[in-house]
Amino acid sequence: MNPRLALMLVTSLILMAVGILSAINSTAASTTPTWEDAVLEAKRGDYRLLTTAEVQKLYENRTPGLLLVDTRQEWEHRTGHIAGSVNFSMEPTAWARWTKRGELEKLLGPDKDRPVVFY
Amino acid sequence: MAVSLGYKNVYRDPKGFPDWQAAGLPVETSPVASSTAQTTTVPGPLSGWAMVWTLLGIFVGGMALNLTPCVYPLIPITVSYFGGRSDQSGSLVGHGLLYMMGLALTNSALGVGAALTGGMMGAMLQNPAVLIGISLLLVAFATSLFGFWELRLPIALTRVASKSHAGYFGTFFMGLTLGVVAAPCLGPFVLGLLTWVAGMGSAWIGFAVFFTLSLGLGLPLFVLAMFSGRIEKLPRSGEWMIWVRKLMGWVLVGMAAYFIRPLLSESAAVLTLSAVALAAGLHLGWIDKARAGFATFKYIKTAVGLLAIGVAIVLTGSWLVRGPGVGWQQYSQALLDEATATKKPVIIDFSATWCTPCRELDEKTFHDPTVVRMSEDGFVMIKVDLTRSGNAEYERLVSEYEVKGVPTVIFIDARGRERRDLRLVDYLPPDPFVQRMENLKTMNEE
Q: Which of A88, B158, B186, B317 is 20 to 30 A from residue B311's alpha carbon, by CA?
């Protein structure tokens, strides 16, 4: 292996390692997200947004199969959550989305049509 | 994510809980698992998979020791010893096992010895002078492996040890003494390992480490003894074995860098370790021009070089992308008074740069995003650095709060009273730490 090739390889390895590490661990937005950000994200993730009033309607109508999922940290859930919701801590990172797939599927159950609301 | 799993009615309420709570809709809380109930089982320095991987590494290290020049001539000796024995009474396998046991016994005795004195050494390892001493010793042994000087045993001892004895006992004795004969070569690595085992302070780990090392060292010899006819297939000894010695040398330099880590600032420690890995990679992979008669050696060399450079990159990389830490403030009485006046809870961290759990607390817990976020939300965070003694005010604090050692983290509620039940005197992972912070805060609101 000639030295120039080795140098190039090392440099690209460094860049790749830094890039991968930051991409995996970075969250989508570091500032407080606005409603517009949420709309954009929803379009990308192909899910729909609800306002709290709409969730309230679903909740009070006792919609069959409704599942409320609290994606905040476990301690946040503990100090207070919507009555009847379950906790599934998710950091908004690619890494968490990848590793927690199986766990989430188990939580949501086999019924693919049930309404699921994340908050 | 739920969409990609095939669920059709997926919704999200971005405002979620705050809005819900503000609207006065039904809310529930789960009772906090009382903080006294959590008996955080502190795992030993090595447990579970870490232990398995470490032992596996040591086993491979033991096998690699067979490639150093001093052991290499012992391979044909072993083989001829076993070859001559096969027609005598007793099975070859039995002799081979005894041989390995003898070897394991010598090495394990050394390991347990180091671990038993380790209690004393553990206390000494907090002392900067000792840490520097150990590192210098390791580097000195490493230079021996690099070939700058030769570590030797008295010749008379070598001769007595290599004399052959008859019967099973003879085989056992051969095993016992093999380590002694090979000591000039194994010495640097084994002594480095001894110092490290002493640092772990557990006799059991000492035994396990050295038993595994001996098994690794003995296994190829055992296999060779069984199939002694194939000896000529071995690569001829040459420059490449000196290269293996250099590899062992770099392992020792890495251990030395690990030992002085507590003395350096965090960034300096990371940079030192990376620099060692980088230097090792460049030296072993490209600068060292060792050649061997077989082609794979070239690839092994490059692979080891790239691996070491990869380690350097990962070390610096993970350090570079790490988020911000807790914003600590210097202690002052005015700050404490102000906190009490504004009814803010206070967390005081007594630490010192040379203390390993403090460092761990700082690197993991106090850089955890949740802890950082919570600390900015109404907490007063104060750090008291006890690295240098002689600060009268700090000493007054130490006696006032009855701080027995570092780390000590004390939690003071909004009314200015310490919550003794929350006090920390060891490393605590981020999650339980958040629970304590939360506990401190909710008690405030009552």
A: B186
pTM: 0.43
Q: Does the domain made of B3-44+325-445 have the CATH classification 3.40.30.10?
A: yes
Same-domain check for residues A70 and A90? yes
How many helices, marked H, and strands, marked E, lie in chain B? 17, 6
A106 and A87 in a common domain: yes
Q: Which residues of A touch B11 (CB under 8 A)?
A: 47-50, 55, 115-118
Looking at the structure, tell me whether residues A99 and A44 fall in a common domain: yes
State the complex-level ipTM.
0.73
- Interface A–B counts its CB contacts (< 8 A) at 146
As for how many domains chain A has, the answer is: 2
- In tens, the pLDDT along B426-440 reads 788 888 898 888 888
Per DSSP, the three-state class of B344 is coil
Contacts of A14 in chain B (CB under 8 A): 313, 317
pLDDT digits (tens, 9 = 90+) for B215-271: 787 777 777 666 654 444 455 556 776 777 787 778 778 877 877 876 777 778 888
Q: What is the 8-class DSSP label of residue B264?
A: S
Neighbours of A63 (CB within 10 A): 14
Helix (H) or strand (E) holding B398: helix B392-400
Domain spans of chain B, in order of start: 3-44+325-445, 48-240
Domain of residue A90 covers 35-118
